[in-house]
Amino acid sequence: MGQQLIKAILADAECQLVAAVTHRQSSSLGKDVGSLIGMADVGLTVTHDLTAAATAADVLVDFSLPQALADNLTVARQSGTPIVVCTTGLNEQQNQDLQLAAEQTAVLYAANTSLGVNLLRELVRTASKALGAKADIEILEAHHTAKRDAPSGTALALGVAAAEGRNQVFSDVAEYQRNYNDQPHQPGSIGFATLRAGDIVGEHTVFLVLGGERLELTHRVADRKTFAEGALNAAIWLKGQKAGFYSMNHVLGLDA
Ligand SMILES: NC(=O)C1=CN([C@@H]2O[C@H](COP(=O)(O)OP(=O)(O)OC[C@H]3O[C@@H](n4cnc5c(N)ncnc54)[C@H](OP(=O)(O)O)[C@@H]3O)[C@@H](O)[C@H]2O)C=CC1
Ligand SMILES: O=C(O)C1=N[C@H](C(=O)O)C[C@H](O)C1
Questions:
Q1: How many domains is the chain partitioned into structurally?
Q2: How confident is the model at residue 180 (pLDDT cuts 50, 70, 90)?
Q3: Nearest CA to ligand 1 atom 24
Q4: CATH code for position 101
Q5: One domain, residues 216 and 120
Q6: How confident is the model at residue 255 (pLDDT cuts 50, 70, 90)?
């Protein structure tokens, strides 16, 4: 995604790429960012100096690993630079860290920056509310084999929307394992299933199943540039915002 984001920024007349940051052991360190995306040199090399990047930038965008989040947020807080966090697979502590950082700077968290998924979340909330306890809800997600976290951050966000729709506490009803052999389906649970295969970019289906009929709400992404362009829109929106916690709903003008 770092490469996709570089491409999106270089192609956007409104934005300027002022730094590209990675970890200290990265093979990309010292390389010109142009070379990372198969272009001519653009005169900007990859660094691990996050503080310098935060000082130079109006907005930081994080597509990395959960273990990088704490440092990224610390630097964003210290510099007051707004940060768009797109990394998934966050644990409870890391989710709390986002909220804490939002007390000092503008933090936008998006498990999925595409327009469609953020609309889908609203549709799922509406459908879940309308169908209530009558529907069994299951969420299926499919991604490429390099993905490290499961279920995807998007699947979890869709699960939260489904739970909210029928006034449930998500953690009480989420079911991640379906490998038991002596247990009936728990009514009201929200189940997750994961596929990892080839180069699937990102697909999510929410099944709302009633006796005799079912509703399937599906979103598919065909190109990862969709995520990069969404993240860039979020960064443009977040620039200059006051400290606080934001989501793609703010960017897209959906119900926040
Ligand atoms: N919100 C959204 O719309 C989307 C979110 N994602 C999420 O974004 C994250 C990244 O995805 P993806 O690019 O596919 O994953 P990759 O595993 O391909 O890339 C992770 C990158 O993070 C870099 N990295 C590792 N440690 C650090 C660090 N401390 N500081 C900065 N960079 C670091 C690595 O750099 P190096 O290559 O130099 O080793 C690597 O390139 C995942 O959590 C994924 O789920 C993905 C797509 C869309
Ligand atoms: O790792 C990915 O590729 C993606 N991750 C995000 C997630 O976990 O939901 C978003 C998108 O589906 C692609």
A1: 2
A2: confident
A3: 64
A4: 3.40.50.720
A5: yes
A6: confident
Are 169 and 87 within one domain?
no
Which ligand is closest in space to the CA of residue 150? Answer: 2
Atom of ligand 2 nearest to the CA of 112: 10
For the whole model, what pTM was predicted?
0.97
ipTM, interface predicted TM-score of the complex: 0.98
**Ligand 1 pocket at CB < 6 A:** 1-2, 21-23, 26, 28, 63-65, 68, 86-89, 110-113, 146, 149, 227
pLDDT tens for each residue of 133-172: 999 999 999 999 999 999 999 999 999 999 999 999 999 9
pLDDT tens per residue, range 35-57:
999 999 999 999 999 999 999 99
pLDDT value of position 256: 59
User: Using an 8 Å Cβ cutoff, are 85 and 110 in contact?
Assistant: yes
Tell me the residue type at 128: S
pLDDT tens, position by position, 89-98: 999 999 999 9
In the chain, the DSSP E strands lie at: 20-21, 46-47, 60-62, 83-85, 106-109, 136-143, 174-175, 190-196, 202-210, 213-221, 244-246
Protein residue with least CA distance to atom 4, ligand 2: 202
How far apart, in Å, are the Cα atoms of 200 and each of 118, 191, 220, 222, 227?
19, 21, 9, 8, 14
Q: Can you tell me which residue has the tokens 């005799």?
A: 212
Domain span holding position 248: 2-113+224-252
